[in-house]
Fold this sequence. Notes:
Layout: E1 2-5, E2 8-11, H1 14-43, H2 46-66, H3 73-79, H4 81-130, H5 144-156, H6 167-192, H7 206-220, H8 227-249, H9 253-269, H10 277-281
Antiparallel strand pairs: 1-2
Helix pairs in contact: 1-9, 2-3, 2-4, 4-6, 4-8, 5-8, 6-7, 7-8
Amino acid sequence: MKVSYRKSYYKVGLKDFIIIEKEKIILLLKRFYRGFKRAKEHLKPLIIVIILSVIYIIITYFVGNFLDKNISISDSIWDARELIFSSLIIVFAVDFSSKERKRKENLKEQQYILTELLCQSEGLLTKLTGCLGIEYEKPILLSENLYNQFKNNLNKAKIPNKIITDQGTFDDIEWWVKDLEIVYKKINKNIKKEKFKIGKNDDKNIYMSLNNYCHYLSNNLNKDYPPCKLKDQIIDLSYEMLIACAYLRRVWMWDYDRNQKIRGILLNSLSKNDDNYYEISKWF
């Protein structure tokens, strides 16, 4: 059977088809639930508007009867219909839709900068491991599992007695560090403006600390730098980078776990020659 996932189609068995569709439905329901929770938060300020509307209706009723207008409660409510409609429905709808639109724009920017952060961070790490004569082509910071694979690979590798590189590599490292600095500044700027969603207890200074550490390595790295010391620093740096990426990715983590389950099933159904194999396999 054919199943759709991220604008591509995959051929799977009936059992896998049912599991994937179930996970997709759960993801969709979770998205609706989160939207409902946000809508509830927007409703809270309207309680004051409701109370004021009720007071207005009561005043209209008593003043009308005091002036011998013989107004009933239903008449007072009907006369206030435009006030109720504009205050409770239009104001809520306009306010909620406006905030939701802004939220989506912020999330889109957060995802874009997260992609930049992943790309630039992994680019620097692979350049640093190249100084140890180690080539590493797999993703590193997409998940803790991928980071552990990278760490284990580095620990098992034979470390040379001297740094294996030339001045061109040092220049490249400096270039990657400068690009990362730009990304860190973007992140800090958006966090200060409260545009990016990260955890309340997350260390917001981690991006500045990483920036300083990267510059330290770039400024001090040379052919006489101790290779074992560099290896340990790469492991420490990559872990801090993993945490920094996780902060930006946290808003999508629940979805990530579900998507990993789907990707795992799809990966088992693909051959290594399939065009989508790399796209799926890079997450593992």
